[in-house]
Design brief:
10 strands; globular; binds flavin-adenine dinucleotide
Length: about 270
Amino acid sequence: MPEDIYDVAIIGGGPAGSTAATLLARASRRVVVFEREKFPRFHIGESLLPVSMKTFARLGVLEKFEQAGFLRKFGGEIASACDDDGVKFYFKDGFRSRTEFSYQVTRSQFDQLLLNHAAENGAEVREEAAVKEVEFFSDRVELEVADKTGERNKIKARYVIDSTNAHIQGKTRKAEFWLVQLVDKFSEANTAGVDEAVLKDARRKHDEAHAHWEWWTAANGAAFHNTDQAKDSLNRSMVLAQEGIKILDDAIKARRSAPAKAALVAPAR
Ligand SMILES: Cc1cc2nc3c(=O)[nH]c(=O)nc-3n(C[C@H](O)[C@H](O)[C@H](O)COP(=O)(O)OP(=O)(O)OC[C@H]3O[C@@H](n4cnc5c(N)ncnc54)[C@H](O)[C@@H]3O)c2cc1C
């Protein structure tokens, strides 16, 4: 009969949670993963970066990726919604590149594969199990977990890993919202015939706002460790996007009111 306490309880069965679960279970730890959804579930983030390949090899999932038919990806192209020129790059040319490809995946399928892999390696996986409370004691943590009927149970563990990816998600989404507003406003200004110099100013704001947003979405592992920096950066992204919108809004208003004003001026005789 196992002791009534897990070594590690993991909250969240996304890639972070299932990776930790596999490695801990392989190290003979008694691990439980709580995932509030039933997999497969939709998730954003399908373009994998080569930096993850070493971890996938360590987990022993590369063969499963091939069997799943995930597309090998050798590079990428970054294009801006506000510009015509894109930038192509190849992973083999990357700084200290160790692999020339990564994968393009369907996240629902990818996340399920990783979670199943954790279970196959000995982790206990509980889906449709949402962690509602975490209480810390000197020698353990206690988690209150609700199943799909809403019934709550308490479990104990020596350690807990929070892999719910929730630290900056809300702010990231807000920053995304303002970026989209800026892109829409740019199209509106373009159609309204706003001057190229104004469009260029707004494009510059977009590029800066995008860079402040992109860093924390692509590397939100970093955001976990630098939450304050992530918040500052995402706040800055929103300010820049709103400045860009104002530049365009002012120019659109000026443009639309210009012919009306001209009509008020009496023609010279
Ligand atoms: C717009 C956007 C685009 C992106 N594009 C890419 C990309 O192209 N390539 C890339 O590699 N990454 C991309 N990312 C980042 C990528 O999505 C994340 O890095 C990745 O999902 C993080 O994995 P995770 O396991 O930490 O969290 P998640 O995958 O979010 O998993 C967290 C899990 O925790 C569960 N959960 C939450 N709360 C509870 C709870 N209380 N109890 C139980 N379970 C809970 C959730 O249901 C979820 O399944 C993108 C992100 C965004 C926002």
